[in-house]
Automatic annotation (TrEMBL):
This is NADH dehydrogenase. It comes from Kocuria turfanensis. One of its GO terms (molecular function) is NADH dehydrogenase activity. Gene3D superfamilies: 3.50.50.100. Belongs to the NADH dehydrogenase family.
Amino acid sequence: MSFTQLAKDRPRLLIVGGGYVGFTVAQELQKRIKDSGGVVTVVDPNPYMTYLPFLPEVAAGNIEGRHAVVPHRQHLRDCELVGGRVIGVDHANRTATVQGVDEGETFELAYDEIVISGGSVTRAFPIEGLAENGIGLKSIEEAVGLRDWVLERIEFASLTSDEDERRRALTFVVVGGGYAGTEGLAEIEDMARTAVERNDRLQPSDLRFVLIEAMGRIMPEVSEERAEKVVAHLRSRGIEVLLNTSLDSAVDKHLKLINMQDKSPAGEIDTDTLVWTAGVQANPLVKNTDFPLDQRGRVRAGADLRITGDDGPLEGAWAAGDVAAVPDLTGGGVGGFCVPNAQHAVRQARVLAKNVLAARAGKPLEDYYHENLGAVAGLGLYKGVASIKNLPGIKGNGVEFSGFPAWMMHRLYHGYAIPTVERKARVFSEYVLNAVFGRDTAPIRHAREPRLNFQEATGTAPATSKASL
Ligand SMILES: Cc1cc2nc3c(=O)[nH]c(=O)nc-3n(C[C@H](O)[C@H](O)[C@H](O)COP(=O)(O)OP(=O)(O)OC[C@H]3O[C@@H](n4cnc5c(N)ncnc54)[C@H](O)[C@@H]3O)c2cc1C
């Protein structure tokens, strides 16, 4: 089936995924391609680009969920926008298969050129009980839900007389000590402490936070020495950091841990909140395409961001970001490829957009080359860590610092980096409002069951409606 309202007879550049890469490429090309008689079509199940580095702050209520996303309809006005999921690509016949959102119709979309920018998805392992009881931190819905959940658990705990229930409600566990997990737990701890300080039936010492990391260190983005300081900082806040430890089972939210070095049992924890941030993998949608993939399931790309197989680059096919294996010409990266981060995604997108135009004009293509600029992370209000490299005047191993200056840098950098002036303004004004009025610790009750009030009014509410994450 083909969809009648979508553009026909206009050369189409199809962008699969409107996240960091897709949004940036669309922004750069939409007007030029429209003016030259073509169309840029963005297919994404979400009507927005999610600014993922803000998720920990959304989970901690420092940033409103809606402000951490950039709406496509508002900011990609010269594009054709399709709310759907690409479920397959037949590049030999220049056709993508799209399914509309909410189990909508499935249809074929013809294109002339394609950009594969579907990003990555959470990588979970077959750990018993994990799928049923865990939650990721990879989408705005998860971050918003997590914030409400943590605050609801605190309210619940403050009234229950059952000691076991109370302990479970006030225990928060994150598995994965990368940036997302470390920032996520540190931010949530900060919010939870504020919430408890405002509740005179609880003490901060009632709270328990645990970070579980399978490797011997956390945060591979900063030096080992700095990572050790972050661990010491987290521990000084009462956060348990368990290194060389992994999750063995999570049945009924009873966590069994194992020591990764000798595979011996490493303790048991009962918790209502299990957050899984232990890694990402390329979006599996690419397995349903005729594009060349590497061993890790990523689309193989050349340094010029054309999809490239054993016989050389494919005509009219481009890829970048987390879904693609792009050579890291600096000699860094893992296995010679760019690591999956926003720093690369947004810069690759700009080179990709330039190369699309260059290829059309028969001009030489540019290779993607980017020296890692380091990283900044927030660890709760006024706390952070930064590692800055390869900027003018900063060479070699760069400079690293922590505390308030790092937190400030984190805020300024991300507040500036979120696309569009309108979103920057929303984020910065929120920072100012929070500084004046303090953190907002009210959960939105029943956001996950919006019909509950109506069901209660009409006498159709379920007999018990125990909250679940
Ligand atoms: C919590 C968290 C914090 C992070 N913090 C940092 C940080 O501080 N610094 C940093 O450099 N990086 C950070 N990252 C990593 C960074 O956000 C990613 O590397 C970056 O978003 C990759 O961009 P992308 O365009 O490849 O993918 P994404 O930005 O994820 O975009 C992919 C898009 O594809 C869409 N999509 C998915 N499936 C389909 C489909 N079938 N059809 C059509 N569209 C589809 C998605 O809805 C999404 O909009 C963080 C990531 C997370 C999860």
